[in-house]
């Protein structure tokens, strides 16, 4: 963990940096967080960040303002849904601003039972501006070439074991 101070002449600049979204350097994730209370560095947690996630193949009945209920049941923390204010959603997918626990594998899809009739649909998840991550385990923080389980073989050799593609 590296801590630094974001001090500027304008408080608005600091706010833009903190809420401005996903930050990275050299394709590695940088988590920026506002200190709480006294700002004790040892108590601060940098294990969550926010991503825009595209949800593809969602049923048309989910493309309404009621999408919040659907999403909250599948993501721990939904910050925003693109187009939810106007009720119009872009293109053929939903864009959702969600909090992701970066120490857990990324979800590739969701299984949803929209009508409650036992018939599940699979919707695909695509993460926008995703930094480097492991294609084998879906973990942010190391690449396939740095993965301890993949170091003994070539990427081509283990390609069929990569759950997240390549």
What structural category characterises the helix and strand content?
Answer: mainly beta
Q: What is the count of helical runs?
A: 2
Q: How many independent structural domains? A: 3
**Principal-axes shape call:** globular
Helix content: under 10%
Distance between the termini: 29 Å
Low-confidence stretches: none
H/E element sequence = HEEEHEEEE
How are the strands ordered across the major sheet? 4-5-3-7-6
- The averaged pLDDT comes out at 72
Alpha-carbon Rg, integer: 19 Å
The count of DSSP E runs of length 2 or more, i.e. the number of strands, is 7
The biggest beta sheet, please? 5 strands, antiparallel
Strand content: 15-25%
What oligomeric state best describes the polypeptide chains here?
A: single chain
Pfam families: zf-CCHC_4
Domain Zinc knuckle CX2CX4HX4C: 101-148
Protein name: Zinc knuckle CX2CX4HX4C domain-containing protein
InterPro entries: At4g02000-like (IPR040256), Zn_knuckle_CX2CX4HX4C (IPR025836)
């Amino acid at each position: 963990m590296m801590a630094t101070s974001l001090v500027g002449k304008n408080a608005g600049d600091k706010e833009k940096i903190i809420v401005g979204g996903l930050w990275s350097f050299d394709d590695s994730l940088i988590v920026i967080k506002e200190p709480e209370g006294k700002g004790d560095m040892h108590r601060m947690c940098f294990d969550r960040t926010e991503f825009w996630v595209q949800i593809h193949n969602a049923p048309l009945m989910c493309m309404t303002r009621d999408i919040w209920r659907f999403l909250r049941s599948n993501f721990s923390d939904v910050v925003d849904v693109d187009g939810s204010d106007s009720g119009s959603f872009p293109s053929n997918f939903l864009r959702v601003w969600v909090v992701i626990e970066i120490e857990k594998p990324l979800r590739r899809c969701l299984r949803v039972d929209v009508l409650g009739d036992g018939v599940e649909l699979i919707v695909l998840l695509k993460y926008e501006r995703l930094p480097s991550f492991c294609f084998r385990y879906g973990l942010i923080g190391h690449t396939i070439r740095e993965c301890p389980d993949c170091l003994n073989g070539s990427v081509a050799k283990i390609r069929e074991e990569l759950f997240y593609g390549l």
